[in-house]
């Protein structure tokens, strides 16, 4: 098994997926018009030609921006998260969804399958519920979101219940065991066309705090908001992302008949060789490493499947022969 990869984007080629709605700088005038609650946080930046922005180091401002983006682009009227929980950069989250859609399109004649027959598992959905919101609004997919944090599960359920169209399309489940990833969530008869995950990247609370300080110091203006805040389970895991993704790869092999494509974001290049080795050992037949970029931030996702081309075609015929 040789991992297939797209070149990691450079700073000179810093662009979002072509279908991503968040190209270019934020249009704060339009966002304020949609969500007036954002207005108090927007101020002109005289050193950048008078363009407006917010203070990305202010968690209230970041949350207000996310609320405005979700309302403006995805028609989410009610979205809130508790203090200290992860407020993710929505453009980057949308990129992950769109690149996964491309993987499904490969098995569907180049057309992204849409509608409720496509099911996605978001491991670690968080209180913000961002991936299911974007995936359902963009493609009509159904989601299961899992999390080990009871507060995150409760808040995500409130977001789903508070927005017409999300109820019935997004199921939020509590992961009862912190070490498990798919076990305890995926039922024996359940099938998922995709699984996705933004894993805890750091190996300790101290490492997570140091990274957050660096991020705050390096903030640009008019660009995507950082992953501001975050509970311990959102930011760090004993052994870091290498241990977490190793466990995910091991469990995915046990669920090989329940999923078409498994995937995760990877923050550190150093994690990749170990993950590739585990996937090869467990019999993954196709592994993709897809580079993504947003402003100066470069990231990557790794996706893998245990199904060969013929089995993927059989999956398509069974799951979404006429998905629309």
Automatic annotation (TrEMBL):
It is found in: Cytoplasm. It catalyses: adenosine(1618) in 23S rRNA + S-adenosyl-L-methionine = N(6)-methyladenosine(1618) in 23S rRNA + S-adenosyl-L-homocysteine + H(+). InterPro entries: METTL16/RlmF, rRNA_lsu_MeTfrase_F, SAM-dependent_MTases_sf. Its EC number is 2.1.1.181. Belongs to the methyltransferase superfamily. METTL16/RlmF family. CDD domains: AdoMet_MTases (cd02440). Pfam families: Methyltransf_10. It comes from Hymenobacter nitidus. This is Ribosomal RNA large subunit methyltransferase F. It is an enzyme of class 2 (transferase). Keywords: Cytoplasm, Methyltransferase, rRNA processing, S-adenosyl-L-methionine, Transferase. GO terms for molecular function: 23S rRNA (adenine(1618)-N(6))-methyltransferase activity. Specifically methylates the adenine in position 1618 of 23S rRNA.
